[in-house]
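Troubleshooting entry. Yesterday's outputs looked truncated, so today I'm pasting the complete records for two proteins to confirm everything comes through intact. If either block looks cut off, that's the bug. Protein one:
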Amino acid sequence: MRGDTANDGRRRPVRRALISVYDKTGLVELATELAGAGVALVSTGSTADRIGAEGVAVTRVEDMTGFPECLDGRVKTLHPGVHAGILADVRMAAHR
């Protein structure tokens, strides 16, 4: 799976994808393709349920953060660990 382009112009592989969607149309196909390309899937609530029900390996966000969803599922990914994972620049030692 091709990823984004680093500053040096080389592509970095996608190793993990965070998926959280309201409209589940095409979700299983997307998850299946990503997993087949070796991408680890991380997901929230009913999105994780739907992916997992199809036999695709998925890790729930709350299992990674140790923090359950709250406010009837309105707050799922607002956690420093999730945000750090999204915003980290792995080229910087302090971010690894």
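Protein two, checking that the full record survives here as well:
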Amino acid sequence: MSDKKPLFRKGDQGPAVVEICDRLLRIGAIKKASNVIDETVEAAIKEFQQSRGITVDGIVGPETFRRLEEARWSLGDRILSHTPGHLIHGDDVSVLQRKLSDFGFDAGRIDGIFGKDTENALKELQKSTGIPVDGVCGPTVFKAIERLNRVVVGGTPEQYREELHHLPRKTGVSDKVIVIDPGHGGEDQGLLGHALTESFVAADISQKVEGKLAALGTTVLLTRLAKTTQIIDEQQRAVFANNSFADLVVSIHADAIKSATGNGCASYYFGNEALGQKSSMGQRFANLVQSEIVHTVGLKDCRTHAKTWDLLRMTRMPAVRIEVGYLSNQHDAVQLANANVRDLIATSIAEAIISFFEPEKN
């Protein structure tokens, strides 16, 4: 999603590229400093993007640049605390969250963001280990962590907590707040193919989902209007969802690649196996909606995948991104150009949401 910030790619050079290469050098992704993005640096960027669960294109945009900054920090390098409005991000925060969770303290989602849940869990650790309770992760906490060696086995505690948190919400959709996120918008039309724009497809399907759920009494909020002129980045959309206290976020996109043969539907949830991160409820909804679309519409099943895109990572509730087809593929484009097919996709998404909140059967 474009937010009008510089992109750096193969062949580029200059001060910003020097900084990018310096960050890659610090984390061991390249062996020597460079002032140009050559093949070696591009390969390192792609490998880094792959390891972080973000789009792998070898291009350094705002999201990749932020992740490079986060990767430089190891637990113990700096003091960590909760600062509302200026939350600390980094690999050191992810490690702290994992350790707190392993020790039995609820730090919430392991997302590398030092929020209120992490602060509360840290205070519980401080209280139980007899050190001053101030919610600040400094030398005394680092020493306490070194002393603790109890490890939870047989499953991750945060996944159990997320599932337990969802159980009381399985009361139907009439009392739920659902945020539907039509990808792109305004001057950012997204991907293009066969006379279709991604922003149009996403907005149309989103409006149809809104209508179907609103008829059931669901409060449905859209992150943008169909004819908006404003460009809204994923961080802003995540803030909107969090401030709305949504029960679920569904982001709708389409895909396109250079090859015309790529086709099908895929769904994405928050997760990164390399860092021990996963939203179990996000994964569950991704599986539900993927199955509904594939079986109802007949698109090729490109399965579900874990990613750490900003919208998936920064939302406090389950969030899933759906790529409803390839605009670069003639078959998919013909399908998506058909209003009846877009309505079927919207029906599939609505049915998956209904199933997600359906009460447990006795």
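Both blocks look complete. Sanity check on protein two: The first helix runs from residue 15 to 26.
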